[in-house]
Amino acid sequence: MLRNPHSPPSILPLPAGVPRPLWSVMIPVYNCADFIPEALQSVLAQGIGEEQMQIEVVDDASTDADVEAIVKEIGGGRVCYYRQPENVGSLRNFETCINRARGRLVHLLHGDDRVKQGFYRKIALLFDKYPVAGAAFCRYNFIDKNGNRTHTNACEAQKDTILEDWFVQICKKQRIQYASMVVRREVYEHLGSFYGMAYAEDWEMWVRIARYYTIAYTPEILAEYRLLDNSMSNRMETSGQSLYLLLKSRALIQEHIVQENIPERIKKHIIAEGKKHCALYSIALASNIYKKTHNSLLAKEYIKTALHLSKKPYVVLRVLKFCLKFALIKFSAHSFIGITLLNHYT
């Protein structure tokens, strides 16, 4: 079985007669034992009984601690535990989470993230208010390893609503983290699980869902996404692996855009805006890499990728600012950017 499936893995409907709570809070974990108690406590503090909420930790064969013992200690019998027989990778672990979920609403809460009081009550109200919604999400905070807020993501609307034109907006830029998103199980049954790459796979999923379903939203800040220096995504970024995966995710999203029944001019606009945002993200990654590792060759590859994706003036200006800030003369930045500008404006 491929760790990174090439197509969406199937999510099977539950057999008739299986008890169906409203909620399945599925907590995928791998070597994040220090944060699992906080994740579990944030869910248990909501005070929702097992008739209405399944809570289960799905462990991808962690090696950093006895995760089952942590679950028993914190959960007190309320939280179920399942361990993969071997490490299967994040995508297969998410697939296992969804297939094991019995609830009508599925929340994938990573073991190092948290929810705030009232998250499940509010999201349930959104689904009640907007029964056509296939998924719903809230605004969220970014937190550090100590649980302190670093910043808050942008607000998508000023009140509870069905987001208009959301497919267009989510195609342009990744705007949602797992901790804030809840999806109807039947949507996963229809569209399948996560696939393709273990980086930005969630962005492709949110685009896929938005293509076929309406999305509900609340501006209330009810989830917390933790940024860690040793996270898998951070390791991929500083090693350069994310460069290829970023382009792959962009290509998958572009396929959704091309196949959608919308005017060609709108498709071209979405693709161009998406490339611009990916270019800006590549520049941000280059800056992060150079600050942390001083790996100028890898930073250069991210900068080259940014200019390959987009040569819009704002992108070129950001590249110039990056080169000036870090004085990367070894990049031959003056000739590199000069040629780019010349090609773009002549």
Automatic annotation (TrEMBL):
Residues 24-191 form the Glycosyltransferase 2-like domain. Coiled coil: none annotated. It comes from the Bacteria. Pfam families: Glycos_transf_2. Gene3D superfamilies: Spore Coat Polysaccharide Biosynthesis Protein SpsA, Chain A (3.90.550.10). This is Glycosyltransferase family 2 protein.
